Amino acid sequence: MSSQSADKLIDHEMLFRQPEYTSMFENKQKNFEYKHPEEKIIEIQDWTKTKEYQEKNFARKALTVNPAKACQPLGAVFAAVGFAKTLPFVHGSQGCVAYYRSHFSRHFKEPTSCVSSSMTEDAAVFGGMNNMIDGLANAYNMYKPEMIAVSTTCMAEVIGDDLDGFIKNAKNKGSIPEDFDVPFAHTPAFVGSHITGYDNALRGIVQHFWDKREDRQPVEGKINFIGGFDGFTTGNLREIKRILGLMDANYTILGDTSDIWDTPTDGEYRMYDGGTTKEEMNDAYNAAATISFQEFCSEKTLKYIESKGQKVVALNQPMGVTGTDQFLMEVSRLTGKQIPEALTKERGRLVDAIADSQAMFHGKKFALYGDPDLMLGLTQFLLELGAEPTTVLSTNGDDIWAKKVQALFDASPFGKDCKVYPKKDMWHLRSLLFTEPVDYLIGNTHGKYLERDCGVPLIRLGFPIFDRHHYHRFPIWGYEGAMRVLVMILDEMFERLDQSTIITAKTDISYDIVR
Amino acid sequence: MSLTAEDTKARNKKLIEEVLKVYPEKAAKRRAKHLNVHEEGKSDCGVKSNIKSLPGVMTIRGCAYAGSKGVVWGPIKDMIHISHGPVGCGQYSWSTRRNYYIGTTGIDAFGTMQFTSDFQEKDIVFGGDKKLEKLLDEVQELFPLNKGISIQSECPIGLIGDDIEAVAKKKTKEYEGKTIVPVRCEGFRGVSQSLGHHIANDMIRDWVFDKTDSNKNTFEATPYDVAIIGDYNIGGDAWSSRILLEEMGLRVIAQWSGDGTIAEIENTPKAKLNVLHCYRSMNYISRHMEEKYGTPWVEYNFFGPSKIEASLREIASHFDDKIKENAEKVIAKYKPLVQGVIDRFKPRLEGKKVMLYVGGLRPRHVIGAYEDLGMEVVGTGYEFGHNDDYQRTTDYIKDSTLVYDDVTGYEFEKFVDKIQPDLVGSGIKEKYVFQKMGVPFRQMHSWDYSGPYHGYDGFAVFARDMDMAINSPVWSLTKAPWAK
Question: Which of residues 203-232 of B touch A (CB under 8 A)?
Fold first, then answer.
């Protein structure tokens, strides 16, 4: 009998647990798969949990398994869509662009526009100049952008295509008007990661507007901000703008991605929405200072901005009490504006919430993985909650990053038993979760496989988050953002506690109504 | 207001003219060849296909790597598939196609993992062969139960002159005949995913069939042995198909490649008949097996009861009366389910218009399922189809259907805006564009995280999904009451 029915429809979750399917699976396995014996599988499975396996795993030199990073051009596309009516154009193979667009759409549940120069074998031999010439002309005519931001895939980088020359040539050939804005950046996928690509692309755009200028007239108190590659960009930048509004600051966000990945469903598709305008970019040149919310997403950009005479400040995601305090004090210092009572009160409410819940965090161990700045912000926040971030891992964080994490550990009594792991992947993390167990795991969607294998609950903060909806609409920065992170962690903790005490007459003595 | 076929044709032709106006002259000329209005009785859809995409137009297509690693090889569950080159390709294609499988991931199955050589600048400059050798050793040490390794080349490999075949041969020998398959599926090869499928098929031929000892896995053949070719088990599709074949008394000896194992692939030449679902991605290996092993193949379509019924009979016709009778029994067995589904959903879907833009077999194969529910497909196109796909499509589409090959973002948006279908079925990149416009949408690559859609069990899910998309209350909320 088929278990499926029109009235009580069964989805894949339950359908394949029905007897007609489970017996089919058994037969397939028994007769055709030539699977290893069950004892062997269990033996190897157990072995992967050992210290011995961990040593072999950490001795890897060539193989990367389940990394927590992506490639440069993804970051370049992220940077580009933060500018008004700007179309990202990635020079190289077309499949890459299909991947970036899909990747962003799966995370944000929003469209992401981006074109490719669709290079194929002939371009591999002769170079991609004609692809650039035709591609710019087509994109310009079809999508009516006001700016096209060019970056590269590894194919174009390996064959050594010269973007500057190609773009000039395209203009000479009349593909696009002579004065049309085409900032560009070389973004080889075999160097750094998506955060490097963000940095390179943003620097390219800033340079495009500022390079030829010598007329800087610093405006006292005016500041620029850089958001960095951030899966919560919509919520975060809106929150930052609210805070800066309360502070009455004169500011520009260089690459404002708060609208493009959060457009309404109202019958109209907006290919472009929001973003930093050219006028704002020109004015931003005169700012007194630039604050980056993510140091490791903006190293080169900040260096360039500094060379133009601005003060620069690099934060590591303004999370938690201290992280937000630092951000507000920097803004206050650079703008000369007082931190208003409203924000002081918000801070007090956050501290109040932490005080109410501090018992929940005491002695709780966390493993976290992800981009370097998120790791720094989160580590600091967890330490101030009295939790212990015993394992902090990043695939694209280097030794300099690791030192900064270690400094946070060293500054807190709760950091005593904590370790930082630069340039490691999530298969390394799997070993660590077995040999040095923690209570909770914080990271992106890919961590759900660790949740399954190691039995450690995953709290989703990072990028990408494919299997939960709408997280990006809420901030994790500022006092309000910290409140959200606090509640996310607490919800998971209370849920686990309830789940472990829910069996009637067995564990339910602790199934409390007041917690 | 319903248009006659002639009205529709005129409107569609005008629409094509309109969208072409946006292009520079050279591009307009080239795009014109990919857009057409179908004329009943023609032998194909009158569009050019499998041609390079224009630069800068926002093609929806992917690349050869996506076709090989993402589609053909990736789902073979007990092998480790190395994304060889920089980190991105493997990262973006990690677990996103929903190729369901059963196995202990990380131990004896590896489908939802991302293995990469994570190329750095020095690998580009000095070559990556040494790193690849070391990597294969590390795979062997850390994942001892893997049954084989495929090396999926990303763009740089072919450009820097690496000799991955030599590495594969050397390591195969070192590991006593282990299956190690070098695949030259660099993303710049060909014009879309399609060449990647072809290359992947060829590598199974050269590095699996030709190198496998046919007595490796003891196997007693029966007269009813068939292999499912070209079903990637998205949301469990291959399972809800397999169950029907088994119910009619056939023995499915292999699944290519959803929930597949290397042993199944190796044993496939022993099948009496290969049944082929996704013609586009696996016709090559089917033709090869026919030529070399004399295994006949037959295309089938398990979307919607009409096509399932016809396909079951077609498959049964290759066997004896017992199987033919069984096919009728299977059809009869599912009649109540089919009737229940149609009774419940057809009244809610009757007359609704659909526009499709997908890959592989779906731009034609799903049309019957919509028609079973009283719906009409008014536009369709292939991401990476060839002319033989467009020929086959004429059996499915009606006079006046708008056909668009390798559609650009601009064209698709304009077509949908003007035609205003009740549903668009396409991919993740398109989904939110159309939903913002207030047009109901279903992803028809990943089944929008649902499925299965194949077989009778899948048809019920398909019908429910189309209903809930089209008749969702959200579409009546898109305009604020105070808006003009």
Answer: 217
